[in-house]
Every structure is written in C-alpha cells, then in structure tokens.
Amino acid sequence: MxxxxxxxxxxxxxxxxxxYMRDGSDLPIExxxxxxxxxxxxxxxxxxxxxKELKEATGLPAATSFxxxxxxxxxxxxxxxxxxxxxxxxxxxxxxxxxxxACAYARARGTDRLCSFGDWIALSDECDAVTATLIKREVSDxxxxxxxxxxxxxxxxxxRKGGYNIVKIDPDYVPEEQETKQxxxxxFQQGRNNYxxxxxxxxxxxxxxxxxxxxxxxxxxITLITLKYTQSNSVCYAVDGQxxxxxxxxxxxxxxxxxxxxxxxxWFLRQSDKVLNLxxxxxxxxxxRDNVIDGYINQNEEDVCADGIWQKYFTEQPxxxxxxxxxxYLSKVTDVALGSDAFFPFADNVERALKSGVKYIAEPGGSIxxxxxxxxxxxxxxxxxxxxxxxFHH
Length: 394
Known about the structure:
The relative contact order is 0.11. The chain has helices spanning 38-58, 82-87, 100-111, 129-136, 150-157, 214-228, 253-270, 273-276, 286-298, 323-330, 348-354, 370-379, and strands spanning 3-6, 17-20, 29-33, 62-67, 70-76, 119-123, 140-145, 165-169, 178-183, 186-191, 234-239, 242-248, 336-340, 358-363, 383-386. It folds into 3 domains: 3-172, Cytidine Deaminase, domain 2 (3-Layer(aba) Sandwich); 193-269 and 333-386, Cytidine Deaminase, domain 2 (3-Layer(aba) Sandwich); 277-320, no CATH class. By secondary structure, it is α/β, with parallel strands linked by helices.
C-alpha cells in the first residue's frame, strides 16, 4: 500500500488528508480492520516506537495506552499483585498471569483509567487471546502491534460493531535518519531522536546515596523512554515496571511534577482497602466506577458520599476518604522512580516528588541551581543521576 486516504486531518474541516511515504515506497503497515484517522495514526506511530524501545531496553513485553499523542502510561510484562488486579478491574481475567503481554497492558490501561478512556493501544509483541479479551471490554479507538494470533484478531474485530481499528506494523521497519514536518507552510527538518536509553545512562550519580538497585534502573528506563514520546514539558513517575503518573505538555516544570504526582497518588490510593471495598451497585459499569472512584479520592465535581448522590452508585453510604487518611496511606509509599525530560530548575520539584514516595530520580542536569537540587536530594536520602540528555518531544 503506497498511501492511505484519511477521512480528514486533525479536525473535520481539514481535508483532504492521507498518509504516504515520501520516497514512494510502501507503507510499513497493514490495516487489518477499521479505518484509522489522522490522530489515530499519530498515536499509533508514536506509541509503537515507545513499546519497541521498551522491549529492546528491558527484554520484557511492553504495552502503552496513548491519548492525544502522549502516553497515559507504559508498562512491561510483570505479574500484577492481587490488589492491583482488583484496582485495574482485571481480577476476573482467566490466564492473565500466564501472558506477560496481557499483564503489561493491564498495568498500562489500569494506571490512569480516566485518561485512557478511548485510548490507542500499542503492543511490542504479537497480540494473544488473553490480551485481546482484556482490550475487548474497554473503550478504545484502536491498536497497533507486529502481529495478532487468529483468535486475538477475531476477538478484536468484534469490537465497535466490527469497526475497531486494527493495524499491523512491520517490526523491522527503520525510518529515514532525517525527518521533516510543516508548520504554517514552512518545512522543518531534523535528525531523528535515535538516542538509546539503557542502564549506562545512569552512571553519573551526583548524590551521596549511590545505591541504585536493578528494579530502580528498570523503572528509570521506563520513565525516560515514556518521556521520549510524551509532549513536553513532561515528568514521569514509575514503580514496579510501569509508569504510574505522566505530567505532559505543561509550560512549568513544577506543574509537570505536580500533575504526574497527583496521578501517581491516585494510582496508589485506588489500591487501598477503602477504595477496593467501595459498595458499588452491580449494574454500575467500569467507566462510571472510574469517575466515581476519582471523585471519591480527589473530591472533584460531586461529593459521591453525600446524601442524594451516594444512592446513585452504592448499596450503602461510604465514609469519606479524608485528606488525613490519604496522607497516612501515602506516607508508607516508597521506592518510586521519577524521570524528567529536562533539568529541574528548582528544588521544589524534589519536594513534591517526595510526597509521592520518590526515591530515585533521573534528569539531564545543567541548571544553575543543580547544587540546590542535589542538596535537597541528599537531605532526603534520594538517589539522583544526571543523564546529560534532554528528551523534548513536540
């Protein structure tokens, strides 16, 4: 296939639209089902790069959930603890523990379920039936993977009344070294960001505490590869083989750190007994439960514990999850990794990260206040590595 005509571009008024190879060669994809759109393909090609690199860097199957050209999370194939399974609504999936790929997607999709609603999925490996079964029941726009088992393909084709977008990509495709794009009719050209993120990137530990275990190295790799495909400015928290909070596209670094931290906090709190034992009515579906849980934790638009409201969702009135209770729960969280796509200009980023259990940090370094950032890390026994590599993505 030389080119694929799209219904429209980013918006319905932006016509005509298509994807094609500038050199006239065949596209490195097959569209097995559906008709993906412009934004679908932006998500597909960015997300595929992320999971491919994660697999190469860790040796584990990887998955990501993308929305509007940024990942909500990314994860590798590690079996989920029972409480996390329940928090991610996957405790009833048969054979989950036997499919590392399904575990990776369960983690990625379960991290930030509000933002993953209507996501684009990327898988590093051939999609199996267990992974497809998990995907089938979630609201999603489409998927890209290097292959699909016959059973998985049939399961996925049944989504969205047969219109689910399924894309197969050639895993051996290598793009040109130079990439171009147009803005306002003006062409930009740059070399592709082919920087390889691996364990040697964290050799320059600048803090007094230099104890960086293998698990933390893995999680720092996950943060930086995730950030490589996240709209900048961006900060990512990770633990136990998955990104648990992504703060994307903020103009201020501290806003990135706060946003990602609040998402990480919500992820941890979802696994508390108080949330896991909320007395939902049986007929309340997963998307509504996600909204209610978020409201219960973050006290957002409606007080779901209030008279006249709780009756819509619960069989009995739950007690509020007070700020004091949440603070106590989060105080026990530790060993979280944090990556930043550019240097921390102030120590306030470290102070905020500490509230979400951050123990390990990777950032490029190079701020005129590096000494103050390092001092804050040392005062809190945090391990920090300067990578020397900025990871802006636009």
